[in-house]
């Protein structure tokens, strides 16, 4: 089992995931606010097509679909996908698909979606793989579209070190460093904006003017 495969073993958590995140005041503090902000920033509405990567039990995908968007949710956990499908019964504008490596192998043509979104998933991707994943997500976004990520992130390594010292519940994972993401996106001719929600969680959005 690779590092990526190991970090995506969430089948056993699928049945209790929703109750865990809704009651959390640590990792998932302000969870619903983050999801709502991601959906709004992504422009979820009638006529928009959105890809949700690391969809889990489908909370963000269903939030976007509830605003009228047509949504595809990808996740490597079959258990999570099954929970999402149960919650989506009767929703005709959302589809959930199990994909082994959903960030790096997006099996859709270029410019297929108006937006790509993801929440609380990108920190499972090793640092060395993140640039490739960002480029793959940008590939499937239409010109003038947007990429929106909500996750545990830190401005830089110093900010992570400080947080690890402050919060005993925080365990080090492959957290995104916003300074590094901004540097990467400057090289791709796209712009990054960000908003902090808690001491450990941010939403960043990448506006697509043109693909490199």
Could you tell me the CATH topology label.
Answer: Rossmann fold
Rg calculated over all Cα atoms:
16 Å
Shape: globular
Record field, number of beta strands: 8
Can you give the helix content as a percent range?
25-40%
Mean pLDDT metric: 93
Please indicate the count of domains: 1
**Gap between N and C termini:** 33 Å
At the first level of CATH, the class is Alpha Beta
Class per helix and strand makeup: alpha/beta
The main pleated sheet reads as: 8 strands, mixed
Q: In the CATH hierarchy, what is the superfamily?
A: Vaccinia Virus protein VP39
Secondary-structure element series: HHHEHEHEEHEHEHEE
| Contiguous runs where pLDDT drops below 50 for at least 5 residues | none
State which percent range the strand residues make up: 15-25%
What is the correct CATH architecture?
3-Layer(aba) Sandwich
Question: Helical element count?
Answer: 8
């Amino acid at each position: 089992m690779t590092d990526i495969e190991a970090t995506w073993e969430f089948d056993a958590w699928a049945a209790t995931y929703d109750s865990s995140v809704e009651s959390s005041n640590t990792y998932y503090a302000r969870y619903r606010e983050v999801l709502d902000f991601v959906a709004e920033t992504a422009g979820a509405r009638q006529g928009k097509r959105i890809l949700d990567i690391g969809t889990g039990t489908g909370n963000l995908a269903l939030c976007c679909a509830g605003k009228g968007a047509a949504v595809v949710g990808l996740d490597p956990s079959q258990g999570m996908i099954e929970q999402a499908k149960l919650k989506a019964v009767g929703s005709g504008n959302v589809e959930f698909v199990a994909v082994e490596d959903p960030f790096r192998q997006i099996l859709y043509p270029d410019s297929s979606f108006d937006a790509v979104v993801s929440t609380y998933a990108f920190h499972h991707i090793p640092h060395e793989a993140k640039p490739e994943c960002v480029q793959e997500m940008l590939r499937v976004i239409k010109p003038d579209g947007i990429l929106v990520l909500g996750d545990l992130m830190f401005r830089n390594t110093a900010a992570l070190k400080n947080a690890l010292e402050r919060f005993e519940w925080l365990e080090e994972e492959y957290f995104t460093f916003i300074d590094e993401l901004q540097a990467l996106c400057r090289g791709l001719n796209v712009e990054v904006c960000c908003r902090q929600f808690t001491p450990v969680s941010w939403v960043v959005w990448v506006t697509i003017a043109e693909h490199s």
